[in-house]
Design a protein that fits this description.
There is one protein chain. This protein is mostly beta strands. The protein has a domain of 94 residues: Immunoglobulin-like (Sandwich), CATH 2.60.40. The chain is built from 1 helix and 7 strands; from the N terminus they run H-E-E-E-E-E-E-E. The strands form 2 sheets. It has a 4-stranded antiparallel sheet, with no helix packed on it. It has a 3-stranded antiparallel sheet with strand order 1-2-5, with no helix packed on it. A hairpin with a 5-residue loop joins strand 6 and strand 7. The termini are far apart.
Length: 160
């Protein structure tokens, strides 16, 4: 019985010590975390049109949010925007998909608001294109840019 008690004391001590050696993952209680500035998704380079720089997106209230999926075919470069629905689907007046090409040209198409509706654009096979999706809602809800990004997105390689 004495051996069991000693083992329990040792195990408790080891558990207590193991719990105290972790790293702090956040600010301590009573302190405030520093706010971070938004990161820039792309920087302008010499010769690159300013239309190729994505801007911040805005989202409506949760009850009006919708989803549009954007894909770029890695072989042919075709850009496809597909409407995926959402809570605000019945309040949509129009969805406009804009594609900006690196040569400075621009193409715009209207996307339907039924789930599965899609539009296609010819894209560049090996060069990034910018895709911007703007949803215009009925009445006073407003207009929101819900997607603005370069496609395909370049992979981020972590520093070793």
């Amino acid at each position: 019985m004495r051996v069991v008690f000693i083992l329990l004391v040792i195990m408790s001590a080891m558990t207590f010590c193991a719990a105290c050696t972790g790293t702090d993952s956040g600010p301590a209680e009573g302190t405030t975390a520093a706010t971070t500035e938004p990161t820039v998704t792309a920087e302008a380079t010499t010769g690159q049109p300013t239309d190729m720089i994505p801007e911040p997106t805005t989202l409506p209230d949760n009850k009006y949010q919708v989803n549009v999926q954007v894909n770029k075919d890695p072989v042919y470069g075709t850009i496809t925007a597909i409407f995926r629905g959402g809570l605000g689907q019945n309040f949509i007046q129009s969805i406009v998909v804009d594609v900006y090409y690196p040569d400075g040209s621009h193409e715009s198409k209207e996307l339907g608001n039924a789930v599965g509706d899609q539009v296609e654009f010819p894209g560049n096979q090996k060069i990034q294109d910018r895709v911007k999706v703007t949803v215009n809602f009925m009445g006073v809800i407003g207009s929101y840019v819900i997607y603005d990004s370069l496609v395909p997105e370049k992979a981020v390689i972590p520093n070793s």
